[in-house]
Write a structure and sequence with these properties.
This protein is α/β, with parallel strands linked by helices. It has a single domain, classed as Ribokinase (UDP-N-acetylmuramoyl-L-alanine:D-glutamate ligase). Helices cover 45% and strands 14% of the residues. The chain is built from eleven helices and ten strands. Helix 5 links the parallel strand 6 and strand 7. The mean pLDDT is 98. Bound molecules: ligand NAX, adenosine-5'-diphosphate (ADP) and magnesium ion. Adenosine-5'-diphosphate binds next to helix 8. Its cofactor is Mg(2+). Homotetramer.
Length: 282
């Protein structure tokens, strides 16, 4: 395995772009988060809130109708578009041009959602982050991979990675297969775990923040919102992935002395994004 580049504060400061004092919401990026299904609207609610809290100017979600009141109530700052279907996404449509799209949190694996995802990837040209059930659907339809834009960011956990690249017999083989998959498709792979690695072709980055408090429902959905936010704010895809993973881990390191491992939940990641950013400016 090639030597990994450690992602620590000096590496982050090479990439981090502070906010310009003359900016306005119209140029801070408009992100679209597509996901949710009956019982898993929370995933989109968390993801879209994290997207806003990471600095994106405008955030819209596209969800099934059952999520409308939930997201509008939980996150009044987020705009909401709905599918015609109540429980699942069946046809993705929106009438604006986002700077980045995050797709997958809570989207489910209904067969009609497979069709919606197929139609979407065939026509989409917007920079993309793909997570969760959208990754699982893609794993089952690998001929769709050629439709994805260059440097699409995929954020699999270990099981989702296995569905994409197949089983491995050793850690070295896991990296070999992931590097090959990244090179073949020109994707950025966020290989989530403890620690998380970011793989961009032959280049491997190893994150240095985060702890076991993150082993709780929804923290991956939050990460998707954070990376989508940075992509919408014009970070290069690999930098959006690196900075997103670093800040995400840092929230858990900051919160740990107050929450302990057990009481930390995905909303605590979101609560601590501000402190994570502030620590970069110290
Ligand atoms: N509040 C919500 O609405 C939540 C919705 N979620 C959504 O639920 C859907 C299913 O996601 P899941 O990831 O639970 O289901 P998956 O079936 O995709 O993956 C979970 C399976 O992978 C295994 N696994 C092996 N190694 C793992 C690792 N390192 N990390 C995580 N799992 C590992 C688990 O044991 C389990 O069998 C996704 O769309 C996701 O976004 C979850 O994120 C939980 C919270
Ligand atoms: N023990 C751990 N140490 C550090 N980070 C962890 C640990 N367990 C999980 N994480 C992080 O938490 C997140 C979990 O993502 P994921 O499994 O997709 O959760 P969900 O789908 O519930 O949102 C990933 O960013 C992963 O790296
Ligand atoms: Mg997940």
């Amino acid at each position: 395995m090639k030597v990994a580049i450690y992602i620590d504060q000096p590496e982050i400061l090479k990439r981090y772009k502070p906010v310009n004092s003359h900016t306005h919401k119209g140029i801070q990026g408009h992100a679209l988060i597509i996901g949710g299904s009956y019982g898993k609207i929370g995933a989109v609610s968390l993801s879209s809130k994290a997207c806003l809290k990471t600095g994106c100017g405008l955030v819209t979600v596209f969800i099934p109708r059952c999520g409308y009141k939930i997201v509008q109530t939980a996150n009044p700052e987020v705009m909401v578009l709905t599918d015609l279907s109540v429980k699942y996404i069946t046809r993705i449509a929106f009438d604006f041009v986002p700077q980045a799209i995050g797709i997958g949190p809570g989207i489910g694996r209904d067969i009609e959602t497979h069709t919606a995802l197929h139609r979407f990837v065939k026509t989409n040209k917007t920079p993309l982050v793909i997570d969760a059930d959208a990754l699982t659907i893609l794993s089952q339809n690998q001929q769709w991979l050629t439709f994805l834009p260059e440097k699409t960011i995929l954020t699999p956990h270990q099981k989702e990675l296995e569905r994409l690249i197949g089983e491995w017999d050793s850690v070295a083989e896991k990296f070999e297969k992931t590097v090959a998959f990244s090179k073949q498709n020109n994707f950025v792979i966020v290989m989530k775990g403890a620690p998380t690695y970011i793989i961009d072709g032959e280049t491997i980055y190893k994150n240095t923040t985060g702890n076991a408090a993150l082993a709780t429902a929804g923290t991956g959905d939050v990460l998707t919102g954070m990376i989508t936010s940075l992509l919408a704010q014009s970070y290069e895809p690999v930098d959006a992935a690196i900075l997103g993973v670093y800040l995400h881990g840092l929230t858990a390191d900051i919160a740990l002395p107050k929450t302990g491992y057990q009481a930390f939940i995905a909303s605590d990641v979101i609560k601590n994004i501000g402190k994570a950013y502030l620590s970069l400016e110290k």
